[in-house]
Structure formats: C-alpha cells, structure tokens
Design goal:
- There is one protein chain.
- With 341 residues, the protein is α+β, with helices and mostly antiparallel strands.
- The chain has two domains: 8-127, Phosphorylase Kinase, domain 1, CATH 3.30.200.20; 132-340, Alpha-Beta Complex (Aminoglycoside 3'-phosphotransferase, Chain: A, domain 2).
- The protein has a five-stranded antiparallel β-sheet with strand order 1-2-3-5-4, sandwiched between helices. The protein has a four-stranded antiparallel β-sheet with strand order 8-7-12-9. A three-stranded antiparallel β-sheet has the order 6-10-11.
- The chain has helices spanning 8-16, 18-22, 25-47, 92-101, 134-137, 143-161, 182-200, 205-216, 261-272, 276-281, 289-307, 323-326, 330-340, and strands at 53-56, 64-69, 76-81, 108-112, 122-127, 132-133, 168-173, 176-179, 228-230, 239-241, 247-250, 257-259.
- Helix 8 (205-216) packs across helix 13, helix 9 (261-272) packs across helix 11 (289-307) and helix 11 crosses helix 13.
- Residues 1-24 have low confidence and may be disordered.
- Strand 2 and strand 3 (76-81) form a beta hairpin.
- The protein starts with 7 loop residues before the first helix and ends with a helix.
- The longest helix is centred in the N-terminal third of the chain and has 23 residues, at 25-47.
- 45% of the residues lie in helices and 15% in strands.
- InterPro entries: AGP_Transferase (IPR051678), Aminoglycoside_PTrfase (IPR002575), Kinase-like_dom_sf (IPR011009).
- Residues 54-270 form the Aminoglycoside phosphotransferase domain.
C-alpha cells in the first residue's frame, strides 16, 4: 500500500475551512487516512515506536482526538486543535504539568507543538490514564463507590483551586489569566454575551430581561479576590475510573480558567443539575452564602460564554445545539440569582 504524505497545504485548508473538505464523501475518506497517517508518524517520531493502531474518538466538538494504541499497552492521546482553538496549546500543557507536579492525578504530557516548528497545526500528546470515562460506568456503579469517586474529584478540584493564578477568566499561561479582576471578568462576559444574544435573536425577551437585570446588579454580588485554577470541564466524560470502578484521574484541561472553586460547582450546575453525578459531588461542598451565590452566577456565566459566539458553528464546523440542550441547568441558576439579588 502506497504511503500517504500529509501536506502542509492540506492541514491549512482543513483547519481553516473544515466544511470544504467534509462536503465531499471521497475527501472524507482521504482526510481520515491522511490524518491517521500523520498521527502514526508523529507518535513513531516522538515515542520511538510505531503504534499498532490509530483510532479516532467520535466525541469532541472543539478538538480532534486520536488514540495511538501501542504494543506494550501504554496508549497515547493526540489532540489536534483547529485554528480558532490553537491558542490553548500555549497554556494547556503547562497547566497539566503544573497539576502533575503538585500531586494531582492527570495525564503525563509527552510532547506538544510549541517546539515543533515544522508542524502544520497545533497538538498535544499525552500518555493516557488506564481506564474508562466515568460516563461509561456511572450507570452500573452503586452509591458507595460513586460517592468515593465524587469525593476524590472534589479533592482534586480543591487542590487545583489552591494553585494561585494572577488574574481571572481565560488563561494566558499556566498561572496567569486575562482579566485583572473578578469584576472585569464577569462584566465583560455579560457584555459580550448579551451583545451576541441581542444581535442574533438567540433567546426570548424574558430571558434577556433577566440577564440585563443581573448585569445591572452585579455590583451587589460580593467579588472574589482570590484566584486559582478552576477546571471548567467538570464532567463524567473527563473523569477516568479504573477497571475496579475507582477514581484514576482527570483529563481535558482546555477549559481551565482562573477563578475560585465555586466556578467548578457553577459549571457543574449548568450542565448536570439534578443528575446522579451532581447529587454525589455536591454534598462535599460547604459554601458560604456568598460562594453559593457566585456558583449560581458562574452557571449563568458558562451559558454566556457559549452564547457570545452567536450562531457561529463550533470550532470543528458542526452546528451549535440549543443552549438548553447543552446546559439544561443554566435557567434555574439564572432564576436563583435574580431571586437572591
């Protein structure tokens, strides 16, 4: 079989205009073969051994994920980023390494594209944590092991929050965020979100009025003055458990922000309110009234950070789902904030 050579022109086209390639059924097959060939070559050059198989994960809307299966059983994940998300490579590998250096159970980063000057796009390679995602096992777990997993996740997130970050919001490095203060982070999120919502007529008038009410009263919510690493991707999909069903580690740190622990709870509220996982994690948290209020606000912030993109497609070209399908708990959080103000 003739070896397929992946060209820089192909990757520039694919990551700039993925739909141009996806529109052709033949190009779809060629695309898969070329990317898998590139992943295989990348692993062989990085690890020193060629993988026995390259498998693309079907999940993911922000990055492409490929598993390189090795003969020794130690598999590797290759995550490639479209142009709109390429800035994440500037901080995510360092965030993971910072967490790992402080005893957190996270993957071992093997390589990334920052030093690969010939790479046509951005990527991270890390050694996979053995096990499966909690989302695949949660339906079979009894109360006690699930509570133990939730307790371990809580401890990991608490340890992350204790790692100081200068600033709030989106990270620019492993220990620095883009907004100087919590107030700037929150106010800019509301402003950008509301502008997009009104421009593209995404939400009903009643929702817009509630959001505007909260925006007008943000100053009455006690600000957070201490920032640490907040995971931002609190999801059973990103929690790894071993074959016995015990906690093994956390993966996917592209959504990490500079904030407080309560942001994790707010993001959990927005996406998983009322679920089995949420009900086991929340009892570990004993917040002050101010922290509880900010957690509800963070659930709204998570929705606004998505809504600020308007009707633009997701980074990999797929159409965005309605916000209530992505974050079914955000409205209850908005009502909570409105009632408490």
């Amino acid at each position: 079989m003739k070896r397929i050579v992946v060209t820089k022109q192909f990757f520039r086209l694919y990551f700039s205009h993925p739909l141009l390639i996806i529109n052709s059924s033949r190009s779809r097959v060629v695309e898969e073969l070329e990317i898998k060939s590139w992943v295989s070559s990348l692993i062989a050059e990085t690890i020193g051994t060629a993988p026995t198989r390259i498998r693309k994960l079907s999940v993911g809307v922000m990055t492409e994920k490929y598993i390189a299966e090795m003969s020794d059983g130690f598999n590797y994940m290759v995550r490639s980023y479209p142009i709109s998300r390429s800035h994440i490579v500037k901080f995510e590998p360092d965030v993971i390494e910072r967490c790992r250096a402080n005893g957190l159970r996270v993957p071992e980063v093997i390589a990334d594209s920052r030093l690969d000057v010939h790479s046509p796009h951005q990527y991270i390679i890390y050694k996979m944590i053995p096990g499966t995602s909690l989302s695949q096992k949660i339906g079979k777990l009894r109360k006690r092991p699930l509570s133990a997993i939730a307790g371990s996740v809580f401890d990991q997130l608490s340890a992350m929050a204790a790692l100081p970050v200068k600033g709030f919001g989106e990270l620019t490095s492993a220990d620095t965020a883009s907004s100087k203060t919590w107030t700037i982070f929150i106010e800019s999120t509301f402003r950008e979100g509301l502008e997009a919502i009104q421009r593209d007529s995404i939400l009903p008038i009643a929702d817009i009025e509630k959001l505007e009410f909260v925006e007008q009263h943000l100053s009455s919510i006690p600000a957070c003055n201490k920032s640490g690493l907040a995971w931002g991707d609190v999801s059973p999909e990103n929690i790894i458990v071993d074959e016995r069903g015990a906690f093994a580690g956390l993966v996917d740190f592209e959504g990490t922000l500079g904030s407080e622990f309560a942001l994790n709870i707010g993001y959990l509220w927005a996406r998983y309110a009322g679920t089995k996982f949420c009900s086991h994690l929340l009892p570990n948290w004993q917040p002050s009234p101010e922290e509880n209020m900010r957690a509800a606000l963070y659930a709204v912030v998570r929705a606004l950070r998505i809504l600020r993109n308007g009707r633009a497609p997701l980074p990999l070209g797929r159409r965005r789902d309605p916000i209530d399908e992505v974050l079914p708990g955000w409205r209850s959080a908005l009502d909570y904030v409105c009632t408490d103000l």
